[in-house]
Structures are given as structure tokens and as C-alpha cells.
Amino acid sequence: VDPDSAWRDEVRRLAKERDAVLLAHNYQLPEIQDIADHTGDSLALSRIAAASDASTIIFCGVHFMAETAKILAPEKTVLIPDARAGCSLADSITADQLREWKAEHPGAVVVSYVNTTADVKAETDICCTSSNAVDVVRSIPADQEVLFLPDQFLGAHVKRETGRDNLHIWAGECHVHAGINGPELAERAAANPDADLFIHPECGCATSALYLAGEGIVPSAQVKILSTGDMVTQARATSAKSVLVATEIGMLHQLRRAAPEIEFSAVNDRASCRYMKMITPAALLRALRENKDEVHVDVETAARARGAVQRMIEIGK
Ligand code: 13P
Ligand code: SF4
């Protein structure tokens, strides 16, 4: 028996026995994506976690994603195969820092990206993900001040799209996406003039891509700023034969599955998130066998965060 198929059989058997649903983010290792019941972006996976009938959720992703599932489904057991799978972006603001920022802008509406800790969500009015950030900010009356956190590049994208000048942006970033830079993108785009550019809004290069489009260096119809889930949808819809992808490289697996006839390549093939890759096949098996690592969110914190997360899953449906 090939060991991979033995692993798959064992994971499926244990998941069934434990009444567990396996969720995997689009940046997970290919074998994890392939065995999951659902693979998707942060928003899709949060919605599935909230709606699932399973008594256990195994979240193959990073810690804030599993915490979000627990906030939405407190009665379920939520496991993450390795609790050390953090996120540099979520680490870029603490609840204390947010409280100080709020004190400087009394009355402002706080919009937090889902890439934040439960403590930060508890200080938040509405959460968003990259697929509905623009819709979330548009849902706030135009004359109201907004504090947007923690990602500066997603914040800049939202500000451009909404044209709001009363949007204040925290200066956080994801180390993986910030490292996908403009010059690298410009070079790759110049060498592949017919390729579509799929760019995650967390990227440092998103502004450069729009500059390339504005200057006519790349036709603007070929430049697409997309969440990871929207990249999959767009891969099925585009007529391009090749696509340059600016995001974490785990994404390529799902894109190639969705559109095998298209050539997908990474703008930066070193853009790998070490936290996402902590969820190994062995860790997933251990999670199922030993019921570990269980994700707990303090009951009071979860209660304070729940409204903001529920508004997030309602907006942009
Ligand atoms: P998506 O919501 O586009 O999947 O992005 C999540 C993310 O930031 C993981 O890095
Ligand atoms: Fe966080 Fe960046 Fe990793 Fe996403 S890719 S989980 S934002 S560190």
C-alpha cells in the first residue's frame, strides 16, 4: 500500500469517527488541500464553519482562522493541527494598541481584518476579509470616521476603491505579502505582456500594479486585485493563457486544479508562509488521533467579538 493512500484512508476514517469537518485554507500544502472537505479563502471558510453540522472543526490554516471559527461556533470543538501556526500580520496590533488608537478617534467605526487576535476582534465593530473589505467599508455612513487595521496595503486598496479620506490605516503588514515587491512584478509583467496579473491586496506590489496599468505598461483589464477565493473564480473565467500570481505560493495548487489549461506562475516563488506550512500531514493525523491542539477563546472575549465577526460573514454575500 502506498503510504500516502494509507494516510488518506486513516485521516478520512478518523474524521468520520469524530464527526469532524476538515477545512483548509488556499495556502495549505497540496496534500492538505486535497484531503479537506472544503478549501477556500478566509471568508468562505468562516461561513462554512458557522453553518456546519459537524460537532468538530479541524481547521487547517493559521490560529486566527481557527479562533474565528470558535467565535462563530462556540458549541463545537475546534482543533488546529499545530497551535504555533501564527500570523505576522495578526501580531502587528495588540488590543492595548487598538484601545489607545480608539481613544485618539472617539466615535470612529473600527474595521478589523480577520487576520487579528480574538482580543482585537473584541474591540472591533465590523471584521472583514480581503474579499469583502470594500463592501464592509461602503456599508458605513460616508461621514463617519473609520479606523482600518492592521494591514496597510489592504487599507490603501480600500481607500482607493471607496475614495474615503476619513479612513485611518494602521501600518501593519504580512511579511510574506510585503516581500512581493513592485520591481519584481514589473519585471515579470514586462517579460509576459499577455499574462493576467492576480494580485492579493495584502501585497506590497498592488500599488505598483495599478501604476503599471495607469501608465499603459500592462493593459488595465489584465490587472486584478483579488482575495484568494476570488482568484479561483477568476481563473475559471479568464481567457488568458498565462497568469502571474502575487500571493503566497500555496495558492498555485488550487488555481492549477481550477484551470489546468492555464499556466500559473508565482511573481515571487519564495513567498511561502512558514506558519501555514506548519500544518503537515503528520500534524493533521495527530490532531485527529489525539484531539489536539484544541482552540479556546475566553467566553467573554468571544461574546464581545461575535457581533463583529457575524457582520463580516453577512456582508458581501
Ligand atoms: P484570503 O482571505 O484572501 O484567503 O487571505 C487570507 C490571508 O491573508 C492569509 O494570508
Ligand atoms: Fe499571516 Fe501572511 Fe501567513 Fe497570511 S501569509 S497567514 S497574512 S503571515
From TrEMBL:
Q: Which UniProt keywords apply?
A: 4Fe-4S, Cytoplasm, Iron, Iron-sulfur, Metal-binding, Pyridine nucleotide biosynthesis, Transferase
Top EC class of this enzyme: transferase
GO molecular function ontology, one term from the record: quinolinate synthetase A activity
Q: Where is the signal peptide?
A: none
Q: Which cofactors does it use?
A: [4Fe-4S] cluster
**Metal-binding found in the keyword field:** yes
Could you tell me which SUPFAM superfamilies the record lists for this protein? NadA-like
Keyword Iron-sulfur among UniProt keywords: yes
Enzyme Commission designation = 2.5.1.72
**NCBIfam families reported for this sequence:** nadA, PRK09375.1-2, PRK09375.1-4
- Which GO biological-process labels does this protein carry? 'de novo' NAD+ biosynthetic process from L-aspartate
Source species of the chain: Actinophytocola algeriensis
**What is the official name of this protein in its record?**
Quinolinate synthase
Could you tell me the superkingdom of the organism this chain comes from?
Bacteria
Q: Which GO terms describe its cellular component?
A: cytosol
The record's PANTHER family line, in alphabetical order, gives:
QUINOLINATE SYNTHASE, CHLOROPLASTIC, QUINOLINATE SYNTHETASE A
Pathway per its UniProt entry is: Cofactor biosynthesis; NAD(+) biosynthesis; quinolinate from iminoaspartate: step 1/1
